[in-house]
Design a protein that fits this description.
- By secondary structure, this protein is an alpha/beta fold.
- It has eleven helices and 16 strands.
- The protein has two domains: about 130 residues, 2-Layer Sandwich (ornithine cyclodeaminase, domain 1), CATH 3.30.1780.10; about 170 residues, 3-Layer(aba) Sandwich (Rossmann fold), CATH 3.40.50.720.
- β3 and β4 form a beta hairpin.
- The relative contact order is 0.19.
- The chain binds nicotinamide-adenine-dinucleotide (NAD).
- The site of nicotinamide-adenine-dinucleotide has 26 residues, from α4 and α5.
Length: about 325
């Protein structure tokens, strides 16, 4: 069994590699070459933590396994640890024997940022100039860094429920050479692309905050009960997702579905756009919404890449297990 510790991931996995792995696995999910297992995600009644398992099997890439972990909201304040904690386990698809244990914290951030980036590549208008951020926590910095590579953005505007956190994303914009402005939610209408990545259970983004023609990637809602955007926005947008089953049960679409405002058939796989079986955006006025719920196959894809790279570079720890 190979172990790749968390501290080695930064030196192994690039944003570009994560993007490629995630784009490929979304395409495989859509053509039937890979599938996710149902998600387990529980509020464990301790430290306000959400803990669970996301797994799947990618027959095309021959990756089988799961990510165990979750979200501990008090970690940073109490322990100086990031709020997300996770580990990926890979198994040999031929025998079921465990083959690798890989630190999943940075990989989660990279694969989640890659997912919204893949959605921007395939769904945002080509002439997008203003990038809007709602959220300024740990994931938001990765999201913004990756998104800025997808279009020639000239400006970043940002809003956060806790305004004191905005310098986190301002720093990322400035490092990428793009000016940043803190704005009200009303001014999100100026954005051509919006990413929301918050842990809220009550929507911040109302339908009137999003202008026609915008692409919005809703990345924070990954659990039953969470909600970042008003349900009315989903009726006005063409809705895409990583996986329909997750989108309608634990993703942003869960609320519009439960209220009967949209049907399951209104939620489309991003993989189908990548494969060319769905046209994606069809006009400059269309609002496209990507409901990025986070699938286990994303984790397996990036973890499998990391294991290969760690072996190649001679830094994989081999354990007789
Ligand atoms: P974090 O704790 O570092 O940041 C939380 C963010 O949410 C901050 O911007 C904070 O201001 C905002 N927020 C908190 N309470 C709010 C409220 N009531 N209203 C509006 N905003 C509020 O967390 P993080 O690591 O950046 O993760 C953010 C979210 O992304 C979490 O909900 C996490 O579960 C989710 N996530 C999703 C995926 C995925 O694949 N879709 C992957 C990783 C994380």
């Amino acid at each position: 069994m190979i172990i790749v510790p968390e501290k080695e991931i930064a030196g192994l996995m690039t944003r570009a590699d994560a993007f490629t792995a995630v784009e490929q696995v979304f395409a495989s999910m859509s053509n039937g070459g890979a599938y996710n297992f149902p998600v387990i995600r529980e509020a464990i009644g301790h430290e306000d933590a959400l803990y669970g398992f996301k797994g799947g099997f990618d027959k095309t890439g021959m990756a089988l396994g799961l990510k165990a972990g979750g979200y501990w909201p008090n970690n940073l304040a109490k322990h100086g640890l990031i709020n997300h904690q996770s580990t990926v386990f890979l198994f040999d698809p031929d025998t079921g024997k465990v083959s690798a244990m890989v630190g999943g914290n940075l990989l989660t951030a990279l694969r989640t940022a890659a997912a919204s980036s893949v959605s921007i590549k395939h769904l945002a208008r080509k002439d997008a100039k203003v990038m809007g951020m709602v959220g300024a926590g740990h994931q938001a910095t990765f999201q913004l860094r990756a998104a800025l590579e997808q279009r020639n953005f000239e400006k970043v505007i940002g809003w956060n429920y806790h305004p004191e956190m905005l310098p986190n994303i301002e720093k990322v914009a400035n490092e990428a050479g793009v000016p940043f402005e803190a704005v009200t939610l009303e001014r999100m209408v100026e954005a051509d692309v919006v990413i929301s990545i918050t842990s809220t259970f009550a929507p911040s983004i109302m339908a009137h905050h999003i202008a026609p023609g915008t692409h919005i990637a809703c990345m924070g809602t990954d659990t039953k009960g969470k909600q970042e955007v008003e349900t009315a926005l989903l009726t006005q947008a063409t809705v895409f997702t990583d996986e329909v089953a997750q989108s309608i049960s634990i993703g942003e679409a869960q609320h519009a579905i439960a209220a009967g405002l949209i049907k399951q058939a209104d939620v489309h796989e991003l993989g189908a756009v990548i494969n060319g079986t769905h046209p994606g955006r069809t006009s400059d006025d269309e609002i496209t919404l990507f409901d990025g719920t986070g699938v286990g196959l994303q984790d397996l894809a990036v973890a499998a890449s990391v294991v290969k790279l760690a072996i190649e570079k001679g830094i994989a720890i081999e354990v007789d297990f």
